[in-house]
Amino acid sequence: MTADAPHGLFDGKVVLVTGAARGQGRAHAVRFAEEGADVIAVDVCAQLDSVAYPMSTPEDLDETARLVEKTGRRVVAEQCDVRDRDRLADVVAAGVEEFGRLDFVLANAGILPIAGDQGRSITAFTDAVAVMLNGVYFTVDAALPALLRNPDGGAIVITSSAAGFTSVSTGFDTMNHGAAGYTAAKHGVIGVMRHFARSLAEKNIRVNSVHPGGVATPMVLNEALAQWSGEHPSFSQAQQALLAMPMMEPEHISDTMVYLCGPAGRYVTGVALPVDAGQTLK
C-alpha cells in the first residue's frame, strides 16, 4: 500500500523486527510504524519440537502486517527462521529493495524451551542457543550491508532477558537443558552486543541490549509454562518484581526500543539495559 505522509519520530526510516508475529515483536513493529517507520517483519511461524507451548503461525504474522498497514505504513512480512542466515539475508535484501534503506534492527526472536518433557531434551539447549544466540548474530550480520550503506548510521537493539544477568534455574529441581540453553543464550548476546557496539561505533551504528523481566506474551502466558511454574515454586518466586506494579505488557518494552533507536538515545551504545521492575536486584 502507499504510505501516508510522515508523522512520527521515525519518518522515512525502516526497521527490521524478528519474532514479529506476536508478543513483543508485534508490539515493536506496530509502535515503530506508528512513529513513521516502514517495517520488515520476520517470524518462523512454525513449531519447534523443543518448545512445549504453541508457537506463532502464519496467521499471526498476517495480523502483524495488517496492524502495521493500519497505521498507514508499509510492511514486508516474511516467514523466516533466524537460524538460517542465508534466508535472513534474502529477506533483508528484499525489504531494502522495497523500501530503499534500513535504519534499525530489533533482534527479538526468542523461545522459552524449559517446560515439560521437551525442556529435559538436549535439543532444548541446542535450539535455545541456535535461536537466541546464533540467530541474533545472523540477524545483525544479514542486516549489516544495508546498515553500512546508510549515511545516517543506525541502531541495533538485541532482546536479551533478566536471565542475561542471572539464571533461569533456581536450584537442582529446575535444572534442565532448556533452562541452561536459555540462560546461556541470553548471557551470550551481551557479548555479541558489546562486540558490535565497539566494532560499529565509528560507523555511527549504536548497539544495545534490553533485558525484560516477565512480559505478558504468549511465550510466558501459556498452559505449559503455568504448569511448570506450579511444579517449581522457586521459579515463580524468582520472577517476582520489586516494584508493586502489574506485569509488563509488550508495549512497555517497545517504549525502551523507541528510546534506544530514537534521538533521545543518540549517545547510548554498548549498554545492557534491564527493564524488569527490579527483578534482578533481589
TrEMBL record:
<keyword id="KW-0520">NAD</keyword>
<dbReference type="Pfam" id="PF13561">
    <property type="entry name" value="adh_short_C2"/>
</dbReference>
<protein>
    <recommendedName>
        <fullName>Short-chain dehydrogenase/reductase SDR</fullName>
    </recommendedName>
</protein>
<dbReference type="InterPro" id="IPR020904">
    <property type="entry name" value="Sc_DH/Rdtase_CS"/>
</dbReference>
<dbReference type="InterPro" id="IPR023985">
    <property type="entry name" value="SDR_subfam_1"/>
</dbReference>
<keyword id="KW-0560">Oxidoreductase</keyword>
<dbReference type="InterPro" id="IPR002347">
    <property type="entry name" value="SDR_fam"/>
</dbReference>
<comment type="similarity">
    <text>Belongs to the short-chain dehydrogenases/reductases (SDR) family.</text>
</comment>
<dbReference type="InterPro" id="IPR036291">
    <property type="entry name" value="NAD(P)-bd_dom_sf"/>
</dbReference>
<dbReference type="GO" id="GO:0016491">
    <property type="term" value="F:oxidoreductase activity"/>
</dbReference>
